[in-house]
Structure formats: C-alpha cells, structure tokens
C-alpha cells in the first residue's frame, strides 16, 4: 500500500515547518509502516483530505474493529492531544484507543471522516457545535499537563509584537495593538479555568456511530470558555464575508454564541479579535496573504 504523505499534508508541512517539516515528511512513510506492524493494524486507505500536520490512515485492528491511525508532528499545540482525549474518555470527543505521544502517534475510534458539521446548514451546525463544546468544558485533573491560555497567549503575543514591525504587517499595526491590549485585559480578569479544545470549529466535529457528533483534533489548553469559542465565531468565514452586511452578521454571531453558551459577549469578542489577528498576521508571515487579510478583516468587524 502506498504510504506517501498526501499532497495537502506535504504542502502545508513544508510551508509551515520549513526544513524540520521536510525531514519529518521524508521519515513519515517508514514511521507509519512501523506502527502498522507494531500495533498489528491492517491499512485500508490513506485519507487524503486529512490533517494539515498529520497523516490519517483508515485501519482495522487485529479483531477487525475499524479505527484511525493518526501520525502527526509534535509541537507545543499537539503534544497533549492524547492527554485531553484520555481525560474526556469519549465524552463529546473521539475515543482514544492507544497512543505513543512522544512520536505523535494516536489510534482512535473511526468516525465518518468525510462528514463534519460543515455538511449541515449553519444554524443547525452552530446548535450541534454548542452542545458538543459544552461537554468538553470539564475541570482538568489535578497535576494536569496542559498549558494555560494566559501562558500560551503570552508567547503568541510576544511573537505577534515582533511581527508587527515587519513590512508585511504594516497595514495591521492598529489591529495588532488592539489585540495585544485586549489580551492583557482578558488574562488579568479570567474566570475559573476548564479544559478547552483549543481548535474548535465545524470542521473538527465529525459524525460518528457511538454518538451523532464527536470532536477531533484538540489542541488543548486550560482557560475560560470564551477563548474556545473564538474559532467558532469566525467559522465559514469566506461565506460570512461574501454576504451583505458582513460586519453586522459577525457581531450578531458573537452575541448569539455568547448568549447560547452563557459566556460574556465582550470576552468572546475580545478573544475572537485576538485570535483572528494573531492567526491573520501569522498567515501573512508565511505568505498566505489571502487568508491573512480575510482574518484581519474579520477582526476589524469586531
């Protein structure tokens, strides 16, 4: 079976991770083959539309159970994915079957990989998403390994401050300043922390057999729920941007999400703005001007 990385994976890893990413891609087929043998898994196919920094292989365990082998790059965002999935224990999220965290290798229950919440109309998708994310907001265990929102965004803010001075960010400097100021205010007055998904949006909620919808691909943190809703607030952004009255629609979405999940709308607005600016400037820094400018435009609406 061909275990070469899918084109999308190869393109994003090379663009985002540079030389380290290219080395990882070279080693990836051998690593995948090794875990297929070690864990006695029979591969069915590589899921070409899988992760941006992980390879997804549909497999069967030795007893015939369908599963997913996920082999990803390990970084500060993904290093504790296994710990979050284990803590949730299948409640609201995909069930973890086996893991080698140091190598970024996870064996998970198989969901319908090609059916996410993006297959639903937006109002229904938002309703389902709200129900799922609430299940994930549980207290972390004592001595947990997860970074805090305050620490993670402090590191992101420091890099954002450096990128602010680059030519590619010249038009975004006022937004960057507002985002950094909001981050300071939000982290100084944060409510009781819970375990967060960290990358929650419609594309990361898949249809399952055990439950209708389950979250995948967490980049876990501990912090306030408003932070976890920031990506959801700008979901389907190209469609949002293309409709008349985009600014008003974005603000209505933030208000509706905050109301439905009992989150302070100003805190959600602040985190949505900060995360959109940070991601937008990052895209500009790696040559993704179209994505970057769209995210910065969304931030300006807020």
From TrEMBL:
Lineage, top ranks: Bacteria, Bacillati, Actinomycetota, Actinomycetes, Kitasatosporales
Origin superkingdom: Bacteria
Protein known as: Aminoglycoside phosphotransferase family protein
Annotated source species: Actinacidiphila polyblastidii
InterPro entries: Kinase-like_dom_sf, NH2Glyco/OHUrea_AB-resist_kin
Gene3D superfamilies assigned: 3.90.1200.10
Pfam families tied to this protein: APH_6_hur
